[in-house]
Design brief:
Number of helices of chain B: 0
Mean pLDDT of chain B: 92
Strand content of chain A: over 45%
Largest sheet of chain B: 6 strands, mixed
Radius of gyration of chain A: 13 Å
Helix content of chain B: under 10%
Distance between the termini of chain B: 41 Å
Distance between the termini of chain A: 37 Å
Largest sheet of chain A: 7 strands, mixed
Low-confidence stretches of chain B: none
Structural class of chain B: mainly beta
Shape of chain A: globular
Mean pLDDT of chain A: 93
Oligomer: heterodimer
Amino acid sequence: EAAVTQSPRNKVTVTGGNVTLSCRQTNSHNYMYWYRQDTGHGLRLIHYSYGAGNLQIGDVPDGYKATRTTQEDFFLLLELASPSQTSLYFCASSDAGETLYFGSGTRLTVL
Amino acid sequence: GDSVTQTEGQVTVSESKSLIINCTYSTTSIAYPNLFWYVRYPGEGLQLLLKVITAGQKGSSRGFEATYNKETTSFHLQKASVQESDSAVYYCALGESNNNRIFFGDGTQLVVKP
C-alpha cells in the first residue's frame, strides 16, 4: 500500500513568518508533487520533482520554494508567508503510471 | 493549455437514487490523455477512484462508472444507487503521459441524504 506522510497536519503562522511543510513517501516513486486546494479552485500545482535534487515549476509557484532532498523527502518552503497562502496543502507521489498517491493534507493558516 | 471542467459546487442526492457528475476536458498538448476520477473523504487525502487510459473504454470501481468519450471530450461519473458513505468530494483529472502532469477539476461535493 502506497504511503505518503505529511507534517504538520495543522500550522498557524503570522504574516512574514517562515514555514516548512514536510512530505515523505515510502514507495520509491520518482515523482513528488505539492498542490494547494482552495474552495472554487480545486487542486493547483505549486512545484513537482522527478528525483532527488530536481525541481520543476508548477502553475502557482509564486511565494513558494521547494526542495527534494532524497527520493523519499520533498519540502515546501514559505519564507515570507502571506494571508493569501492560507490553504489546504497536499503532497503526492507517483511512478510513471500517473496514479497519484496523496498525503492527508496540511492546513496552513497565515494570520 | 489543458483544463478540466466538472459539475460545480455541491450535489445533493437521496440515498438509493442515481448520480451523475459531469466532466469535460480540453487538451492542446496531447491527443488522448489519461482520465481519472479521484475522491476525498472527510479528513483524508485524495485517492484514486477509477482511471481510463483508452478512448471508448469504461472504468468502474465501488459501483461508480465513467466512460472515456473522445467525441464529446467527456468523462462523466455515474452511480445507479448512492449510499451515505459515498458523501465526499469528487475530482475529475486529466493526465499528460509525456511529462506526468495531472490537471484537476475544481471538485464536486456530493452529499447523500438518508
